[in-house]
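lol ok so funny story. i was supposed to be doing the assay writeup but got distracted and ended up predicting the structure for this chain instead. priorities right. anyway since i did it might as well share w the group, maybe its usefull for someone
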Amino acid sequence: MALMPQPTTHVNLWKHRLGQVPESLWEMVDLETLVLAENDLNEISASISRLRRLRMLDLGHNALHSVPESLGDLETLSDFLYLHDNRLRSLPSSLNRLKRLRYLNISENQFEVLPDCVCGMIGLIELRVSDNPLTALPVALGQLTALRELHLRNTRIECLPETIARLVDLRQIDLRGTLLKSLPRVLATLPRLEKVDLRWVNTLDREDWFADLEARGCVVYR
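and the output, tada:
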């Protein structure tokens, strides 16, 4: 008896310089992980919404100016979504439906504001927004109560919202090379905070409550 072919669940096309994604790829509806990094892509078809079993998607290191609204239909995305090193200025609001997503990397793009949809991804454990011309964070950041790591290195932010006090599971915050002028005292109340990285920040004086953090074992890098 002939064996039935097994469905393909993992495709890795890293650094294939495809230029565009073959339409046949969107027919592989059993895919759970898809890597399309470093392929000189400047667009992604709306047909990506067919991949309703996808848990991990890597679109990093391309030339994307946008991603399709239909990306928000992939509500099974739970492990990773890599969009870093593209030319993105915004994200579609539909992505706020990615409630199961645990890791999002949108570093090395052109975001001047954090997209609203990111604050709807309430399952996020790690958020990377480094190396963007970001000037501020919204108060809605406080909705990401599962967040453990927040990476904001080399952005232009000058302050953090007071709602960061709601991130009670936060362990690490990377603020290297930012333009911070002040930090909210509520950071000292975060019970699980282990590391605050402020290296290369030349616009911030040492806060008196840093000693409280250090006394309980949190490392403050200056």
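The helical segments are 210-215. The longest helix spans residues 210-215.
back to the writeup now i swear
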